[in-house]
C-alpha cells in the first residue's frame, strides 16, 4: 500500500463503524447515509447508488477489491451518482426497506446489496454482487453503471414514474395487519402444523432442517423444546426432543464448531455441518449458549454443558470489551501467514496434515506400537493427507490441501482403535487442543468488528444468564450483569428514557459514540427486555426488572401500530425511510414481534399490567394467517402462541434469597426446563419494587418458617409447598 499521505480519503473516515472505515480509502467518493448525501443528490439532480454490506461479509470484500478500489470504476461512480455506503448492522432499517425491493424485483437478495435510487430515495433498480466486467452469464458493474446513467439522461420521467409505482406496490404487499378477525389463532393447530413442517424438512442423518447450506437456526430448536415440554408423553413430543438434541450434537461434532478456539461459525456449506463459512457472529453465540443450556437442563447430559462452557469461553476471551460490552463479529477471511499478500477464507482455522504431524510428534506410551499424538488427533478429527474439503464446496480453491476439523468418531471408538482408556484419550485430545491453540495464536487474526449493538448484546446477556442459571455457574450470571450495566451506561439515554442502537471501541479501551447517535430499533428494545427478564431470573436483582418494564412502556410508545396491531420495526417520523415495515420471518435471529409476545406476557406477570396480555394477543392476531398457513417461517412466534394459550405460571418463592432453603428451591427451578413459567422471589421487603407492583405477594407467607413456593396463575395461587420434590412435580406441565 502507498504511504498514508498519498492515499485518497473520503468522508467515511469520520465514521465509527468498522465496515464504513474499511471503505474510507476507496477512490469512490462515499457518503454515509444522511442529509448531506440526500441534499447533494437533489441539488445536482443525480441518482443515488446505495451499497449495503457488513464487515464480515465475504462477497462485500470481493466487490470492494474488484470494483470500489478500481480508480476507473470509481470515476464513473463519482461522475454519475451520489454514492452512499451503509453498514446493515448499524442501520437495519435502511437495509430492510431496500432489501424488500431487491427481493421483490429480482427474486433473490443478499449482501453486498446494490441499489439505484432517485434523488428522493425511491428505488428503481437493484441487485447484489456484480463482477466488475461483463462475463458470459452476467452483466458487469461498469456496464450497469453506464446504462443506468444513460437511462436517467434519456428517460428521466419514465424512471421517476416507475419508481413511484414500485413504491406503491411494495407498500401494499409488505403490510402486515389484522384482517377482520381479531383473535389469536388456535394454539394446538398452529403448534402441530409447525411441528409437522419441521419434521418433514428434518435431516434424519445429520440433523438440521435443510440439505445445504445448513444454518444453526436456534429458533427451530427453541420451538422443538417447547413442543416436547407440552407433549412429553406422546410419540410426537419424543421425536421433537430427539430432533433438537441430535441437531445440537451433530453441530457440536461438525466443522461449524471451532474445535480448537471454541465458538460456532455462521453456517455450513454442506449437509454434514463440515465446511463452514468461517465468520463468527455474536448473535449465534448468544442464542446457541441458551439452546445448549436448555439441552443440558432437559437431558442432564454433560456433553451439552461442555458446549455451553466452550461458547462462553470464546465470547469472554475474543468478543468481550474490557468495559463489559460484547463485540459484533469476527471475519472469515485472514492472511495465512504474516508475509501473505492475500487474505483467504478460513485461513485462521484450517490445517495441513504435515503441519499437525509436526506439532504433535510425541509417541504415546501404552498405545499400539508407534502411535503418536498426531495419529490419534488426525484420526479423531477426520484429517486427510490431501485435505478433507470436497472441491465442490471450495469454488475458489482457498482450502485446497487443508483440513477442517470434524469429530468423525466417538471418543470411545477412537480410544478402542488405539488401545487407550477413554479418560486417557480425553486428556490426550485436550493436550493436542492446547498445543494447536498456541500454534493458531501465531497466525494473523481475522478482522474483529468492534462495534457493540444493543440488540445483539441483549441476545448474549440472555445466553450468559440462562447458562448461569442452568449450569449453576455464578460467574456467568455476573458476566451477564456486567454487560447489562454496560448497556445502561453506554446504550441508554436516561434523559429521554430511550435505547441507542450502537457504540464503538475507541482508543485505549474507551467507548465512543457517533456524533449523531443512532436511536434504538424495535429489535434493540425486544432483545434487551428479554435479556433483563432472563437476568432477573438468574440474579434476582429487582433493578433489572424495573428497567425492563420501563423499556416495555417506551417500546409501546415508539413502535406499536394501533390500527393494524403488532410493532413496526422502526419509529414514525423519519422522512428518509420510505416504508415502516414489520418483519415476518424468524431467521438467524427471531423476528422482534415473536419475542415481544413472550416479553409482554412476562411483563404482565411482573407488573399486574393486564393490557400487556391483550397486546400479546393482538400481535398473534396480526400474524394469524401466516401462523396458520406457514408456521415454519415463524417458529418462535408459534412457541409464543402456545405460551399465550397455556398462561404463564408465576412461580413465587417466599424466603430469604441468601438462605440455603431458598437456594435449594431456586436450584430445583433452574434445573427443570419449563417454558411457561416466570420466577420471582418474595423476600418480605414490602418496600421493594415487586411488592409495589404486585400487591398479592403480601398475602403469601412462609410455612413453618421455611422457604415456601407457590405456583400461581393470573395471580391466583396454589397451596404452599416446602418440599423440592413437590415443587419439581408442579413445574413439569
Q: Outline of this structure?
A:
This protein is an alpha+beta fold. The chain is 47% helix and 10% strand. Strands 1-3-2-4-5 form a 5-stranded mixed β-sheet, with helices on both faces.
Would you mind describing this structure in some detail?
47% of the residues lie in helices and 10% in strands. The protein contains 27 helices and 21 strands. Among the domains are: 11-174, Glutaredoxin; 349-442, no CATH class; 650-731. The protein has a 5-stranded mixed β-sheet with strand order 1-3-2-4-5, with helices on both faces. Strands 19-18-20-21 form a 4-stranded mixed β-sheet, with helices on both faces. The protein is globular and about 85 Å long. Helix 9 packs parallel to helix 11 (282-299) and helix 17 (454-470) runs parallel beside helix 19. The longest helix has 20 residues, at 422-441. It has 733 residues and is α+β, with helices and mostly antiparallel strands.
Radius of gyration: 27 Å
CATH class of the domain at 11-174 reads: Alpha Beta
Mean pLDDT across all amino acids: 95
Spatial ordering of strands, largest sheet: 1-3-2-4-5
Structural class: alpha+beta
- Please, how many helices? 27
Task: Give the CATH topology of the domain at 11-174.
Answer: Glutaredoxin
> In whole angstroms, how far apart are the ends?
64 Å
Unreliable residue runs: none
Portion in helices: 40-55%
CATH architecture of the domain at 11-174: 3-Layer(aba) Sandwich
What's the overall geometry?
globular
β-sheet strand percentage: 5-15%
Tell me about the largest β-sheet. 5 strands, mixed
